[in-house]
């Protein structure tokens, strides 16, 4: 029996995605890269699809050809060095990284995302005003430009829900996320109206865990579970914390978070009842002058 191919780590997948992006930015085909570096086209394909870990000299040849700047060069070399390790904690940085964030890259490639949020509405379902208020609240020292960059990035992310092969998005939120007046009554009223509309999309499932459900497995905090079309790309768990971005990919972690999400599905209201609760909260807010 042939040995089972080892699935690529999250670092190797991130490195491959970034090398694809850099080649695209340089407007070069794989054939042109091969001609200019001597790297075999098949090898380049395997590197760009995370099927192979490049040798350091191969990586340096690509970085030189793409004229990669020192900071990003160091970032990619560090990914190469640790490419075989599972799990990944990316330390917190206040600014949006130039190479875009790892999470956004994986989200754009995923075929399905399951997201639990306890205090925020999911970024993919946020209105622009709500997103701006959230970002200002979470990052009080951010400049106006930094806030707007993040708002723009968040709104652009939402294109995954309406592309030709849209992302299958299943979101579960605690009722607290619907009742917290982020940005004030007017902003929250607009957000609830926006939410009522977008959750009608056939590729979106939205559920709310009501206060009456009591304690539940999601109370420790938010998480995202992503799955991918390619069977070689194993599921990823993403947790956004004050310490930084944490990616988990071990079989044990994936099994545990799948089980947690299944439990949350069971304690949450049905999608129809959740939609009714959104309208009920919106009506209460409007009655109070929101």
UniProtKB/TrEMBL annotation:
Kindly list any coiled-coil regions of this protein: none
**Does this UniProt record's set of keywords contain DNA-binding?**
yes
PROSITE patterns named in the record: HTH_CROC1 (PS50943)
Q: Identify the Gene3D superfamilies for this entry.
A: lambda repressor-like DNA-binding domains
Which Gene Ontology molecular function entries are recorded, alphabetically? Answer: DNA binding
Where in the numbering of this chain does the HTH cro/C1-type domain appear? 19-73
Q: What is this protein called?
A: DNA-binding protein
Organism of provenance: Amycolatopsis rifamycinica
Classification of source organism: Bacteria, Bacillati, Actinomycetota, Actinomycetes, Pseudonocardiales
